[in-house]
Amino acid sequence: MTNSWTDIKNTDLVVIMGGNAAEAHPCGFKWVTEAKATRGAKLVVVDPRYTRSAAVADYYAPIRQGSDIAFLNGVINYCIQNDKVQWEYVKAFTNAAYLVKDGFGYQDGLFTGYDESKRDYNRTTWDYQIGPDGYAMVDETLQNPRCVWNLLKAHVALYTPDMVSRITGTPKDKFLKVCEMIGECASPTKTMTSMYALGWTQHSKGSQNIRTMAMLQLILGNIGVRGGGMNALRGHSNIQGLTDLGLMSNLIPGYLTLPTEREPDFPTYMASRGFKPLRPNQMSYWQNYKKFFVSFQKMMWGPAATAENNFAFEYLPKLDVPAYDVLRAFELMKQGKMNAYICQGFNPLQAFPNKAKLAEALGKLKLLVIMDPLETETARFWENHGIYNPAEPAKIQTEVIQLPTTCFAEDEGALVSSGRWLQWHWPAGSPPGEAKTDVWIMAQIHLRLKELYRKEGGAFPDALLNLQWNYKDPHEPSPEELAKEMNGYVVSDVVDPNDPTKKLLEAGKQVAGFGALRDDGSTACGCWIYSGCYTEAGNLMARRDNSDPGETGAYAKWAFSWPANRRIIYNRASADINGKPWDETRKLLWWDGARWTGYDVPDIAPTAKPQDVGPFIMNPEGVSRLFARGMMRDGPFPVHYEPFESPVANVIAPKVRGNPVARVFKDDFAQFAEVASPDFPYAATSYRLTEHFHYWTKNNHVNSVLQPEFFVEISEELAKEKGIAQGGWARVWSKRGSVFAKVYVTKRIRPMLVDGKTVHIVGIPIHWGFVGAARKGFPANQLTPFVGDANIETPEYKAFCVNIEPTTGPVA
Amino acid sequence: MFPPAPNPPIAPTPAKFGEKDLIRKSASSITPASPRQTEVAKLIDVSKCIGCKACQAACLEWNNLHEEIGTFNGSYTNPPDLTPASLTLMRFTEWVNPETDTLEWLIRKDGCMHCEDPGCLKACPAPGAIVQYSNGIVDFVHENCIGCGYCIKGCPFNIPRISKVDNKAYKCTLCSDRIAVGQWPACAKACPTQAIVFGTKDEMKNWADGRIKDLKSRGYQNAGLYDPPGVGGTHVMYVLQHANTPQIYAGLPKDPTISPVVEIWKGVTKYVGFAVIGIAAAAGVLHHLVAGPNRVSEEDEENAEKLTGSDRT
Questions:
Q1: In what order do the strands lie in the sheet with A192-196?
Q2: So what's the pLDDT on residue B259?
Q3: Does any domain span residue B274?
Q4: Domain Molybdopterin oxidoreductase spans what residues (chain A) (predicted)?
Q5: Residue B181 annotated as binding?
Q6: Where in chain A is the domain with CATH 3.40.228.10?
Q7: Among A550, A591, A549, A551, residue whose Cα is nearest residue A571
Q8: Can you give the CATH number for the domain in which B228 is found?
Q9: Inter-chain contact A30–B56, Cβ cutoff 8 Å?
Q10: DSSP B61-83
Q11: Which residue of A344, A398, B272, B299 lies most exposed, with the fewest beta carbons within 10 A?
Q12: Superfamily (CATH) of domain A6-235
């Protein structure tokens, strides 16, 4: 989230698209009901199904899954055509005026530089024109045909209301009604919040779905302001924390990146991480990259990381591929190239696509280690459960070791919420049986491996043997010790260069924040963005002061919000170019003539003059990007691409199949249904239900009572066409698998008219499996395709194709 | 935001009401407590409800009830009906507004309405099996229940259910145990969107007024409070988007009243005097009057519906 849960109360318009907040985030949804009840805010829901969120919405518009970019590009086009633009904001705080290189272009669904054989672009033309002064060239009049605004205008012109309706299936009048409601928020005194989740991420163009809405929010001037923002609702408690600490295999904590094979030494690695400002006076905060990186290395390897050895840069693995994401891991397992897998708090047999492929891959492992508080399907993948898991144990040689862990209520530490709040919690009970904390288990593995390397040596033992392990009890580092490391501490005294008697930093003390970190090895910090969470003042994550001066919803003394306890990021953009709040009734920060003041911690230096320094401090431009340069693999502007399995061809680019740069493994392509396949004519989507949390709560009796049995949802029209009865049984199958399900024939799903063709939707909840208290059932991933987003490999669960027929119940 | 539910006290807290606060007791003559305690009420704002069923879960957990894991039956309503364990139930109705031709997914939390004039209590032939406190809560006293099922027939909302395990009637207690120590009912405490709030009946009516204004401003011209006068008003009230047609909310009766048969029977008891007839005779007479077996069959339900004159379907 750019903002926080509590800030949603400040909004005028909530747009829930690419998510179902009432269903999946019922507790956070209270802030939507609060905005509605006290501010008179409106709620718009755009979804293939009439959801629980739609049930309390002011307006609902249906959309075919996988066509969000067409819809949102259409809204951007509407805003441009109807002058629903927050011009002052767009001119001052976005790259609308920046000139783009002449070589850049777009045609028939593809940008300049596409190489079909590599399924990748050469992105060198996707950038600004750089002037003789070394800065990006701009035309503040927006007259230059090569400026971002004019390129954007031309790019979205195709997405007329008629075209949007033709692609998305959203009736034109409903699309225009949504446009009208959104367009009102171009006013500086009206804001809209975007609440989204996996309904946008789980597509082969998931990143661009989100980016399109972010662009719209910038055009409306809704980023950095109260009640605005791009608010990603995270799906697991603390998945935000996991992401911050390096969830992705190419990241190290705090969104630093691992070196690749092409960066074998430290100078080469740093060469592409200079982040020189692209406009005068800009902060370009990533210029501090080296400080964060060196401090991370010092936390990891302590005295073994020295200036002489480039702070142990050699110890880091160098990636030979862009990332070892989960899809790649299972592909490698299937090929017999990955032999051991440690599965910590993860149930991939249910959670990743194409269950048959996953099961085959797990069966080729030599060792599978499961760390989990619950019994999982993955741990039992080898067990025969009839049609629910037709494994043949005699043919599987994988050794499976289950290590029971504690759950969140049995241990101590911080959970990071969607709103970036690190909230400390304390155990409410003792772990059952032999369950141990994850930290204890990992410490044992670490200490024993270290011992083995010490005794027997190995190819490159240094990285492991030199790993710093200074904990009171080496067998179980305490949550406080780990949190203090993440905050960062001073390794050696730093004296004032002007006054050698004065210590700026004193060895052994906690640093006050990431501003104190240094690139000379005198500071150590595990995760720079968390710096400030556990300082000399104590554990700020444990704060529980719910005072809220001005009732802004900031709650600045409750827990700790990264970065720097900032509650709304890009908050300098809440005021105009002169530092005056856009909306006096909803002010956040303002320039008092000498410094920035207000209710939140400013993004920019407190004394940075408002006209000089832009609010988007992480970008070398200091402004936000309507044109993403080469930062995204699939284009600087979003394009509508169909899902890999689609009931229709791409109207705007009929030759392009799926996202043209999404990675697809060879065998998986063969397992996709053809475009508009008569064998798989129905557009399927998968989703959560409020009664369950993924595959956990089916272990709980009460949750299983509330939603006991697997079902799929179809329209009355499709039910009639297929002769399927309400509550009756059906078989649903894709090119990858088949499931039996009870059927919910509902008015909440309607067939859609897409490019002149009726498209039926099949909805598939994800929660059932062959383990737990609820009735045995099929997981949705028996059907889903093995392909991910082009940028971050989130699997395409939300849009694929199936067939359906009535049947009798399964014979287990 | 309505002031949130208080957290539980740490120190032992004496109960705020008890036996001395009764105003009615089934098949018994008592002197009603006077003065009455401030009347309480639970307000269920259907327009704020997201159907998450946290209330259902909280009810099962707080009351330590064990519901069976059922099957899928073509609806999100699970279990499909109230049971002796499921004292509250989210009922989901897909309703197409004939005026706008748009779908509305109406989600109503069903359960005991705690009528000011409780039909169950009036129909109950077992002395002291059903009581009403002066704050309005209607509670079942299970040790006195004989499992005859007349409370079901007396109830215009079809709420109580007889347990096959102990043959006693069960329904929502409004968490009288929690309210007695200053807490909100478990369902209200668990509700994430304040679709359920709790307070005095006056507070709830005032709060409902504000909600109804908001709904009217959003085009729900018939938004209103459900506090049916036919049963003297209720201590569980609804804010409905379409208060003119409560039936669309899974058969919430439009104008609930106590069955005339029960009212007549009440007259008879006054005249003859319960004490001399004895429980068995009383049960026999009532049995004859309603002409149904003790075990509640579907046919019985239908008869009860006819008798109560409700227009639920």
A1: A59-62, A42-47, A13-17, A192-196, A230-232
A2: 87
A3: no
A4: 1-381
A5: no
A6: 6-235
A7: A591
A8: 3.30.70.20
A9: no
A10: HHTT--PPP----SSS-SSSS--
A11: B299
A12: Dimethylsulfoxide Reductase, domain 2 (3.40.228.10)
Q: Give the closest of B52, B60, B74 to A727, CB-based.
A: B74
* Closest partner CB to A26 (pick from B54, B69, B71): B54
**3-state helix, strand and coil shares in percent for chain A, rounded to the nearest 5:** 30, 20, 50
For residues B298 and A672, the model is more confident at A672
Q: What is the pLDDT of residues B126-156, one digit of tens each?
A: 999 999 999 999 999 999 999 999 999 999 9
Distance in Å, alpha carbon of A171 to nearest chain B alpha carbon: 13
- CATH number of this structure's domain A666-806: 2.40.40.20
State the residue range of the domain holding B197: 19-248
CB atoms within 10 A of CB A391: 17
> Could you read off the pLDDT of B289-313 as tens digits, one per residue?
655 445 555 665 665 555 554 444 4
Q: Do B51 and A29 touch (CB under 8 A)?
A: no
Q: How far apart are the first and last CA of chain B?
A: 36
Residue B222, domain member (yes or no): yes
Sheet arrangement for strand A399-404: A340-344, A367-372, A399-404
Quickly count: other Cβ atoms within 10 Å of residue A738's Cβ.
14
**Interface contact A544, partner B, CB < 8 A:** no
Alpha helix segments (H runs only) across A205-245:
206-219, 239-244
Q: CA distances (Å), A440 to each of A304, A371, A404, A406, A778, in order?
A: 25, 11, 11, 10, 34
For A26, which residue in chain B has the nearest alpha carbon? Answer: B192
Helix (H, G, I), strand (E, B) or coil at A141: coil
CA A488, CA A295: separation in Å to the nearest integer?
8
Could B74 and A691 be called an inter-chain contact, meaning their C-beta atoms sit closer than 8 Å? Answer: no
* B63 has binding-site annotation: no
Judge whether B153 lies within some domain: yes
Contact A710 B47 (CB under 8 A): no
Whether A10 has its CB under 8 Å from any CB of chain B: the answer is no
CB A690 within 8 A of CB A805: no
Please give the pLDDT value at position B297.
59
- Inter-chain CB proximity B78 and A726 less than 8 Å: no
- pLDDT > 70: what percent of chain B? 84
Kindly state whether residue B239 falls inside one of the protein's structural domains.
yes
DSSP calls for chain B: -PPPPPPPPSS----S--GGGEEEETT---PPPSSPPPPEEEEEEGGG-----HHHHHHHHHTT--PPP----SSS-SSSS--SS--SEEEEEEEEETTTTEEEEEEEEES---BSS-HHHHH--STTSEEEETTS-EEE-GGG-----HHHHH-TT---EE-TTT--EE---TTHHHHTTTPPPHHHHH-TTSSEEEEEHHHHHHHHHHHHHHHHHTT-TT-EEE--GGGT-BSEEEEETTTT-GGGTTS--SS----HHHHHHHHHHHHH-HHHH-HHHHHHHHHHHHT--SS--HHHHHHHHHHHT----
The answer to whether the annotation marks B151 as part of a ligand binding site is yes
Q: Which residue of B has its CA nearest to A34?
A: B1
Min Cα distance A353 → chain B (Å) is 25
Residue (of A128, A63, A3, A65) closest to A644 by Cα position: A65
Residue A554 tokens, joined: 């900031």
DSSP secondary-structure letter at A664? -
Of A800, A714, A712, A717, the closest CA to residue A758 belongs to A717
Query: What's the domain count of chain B?
Result: 1
Which of A370, A373, A343 lies closest to A700, judged by CA?
A373
Q: Tell whether A27 lies on the interface with B, counting CB pairs under 8 A.
A: yes
In DSSP notation, A442-478 reads HHHHHHHHHHHHHHH--SS-HHHHT-----SSTTS--
Touching B: A residues 713-752, CB under 8 Å:
726-727, 742-748
Strand partners, B33: none
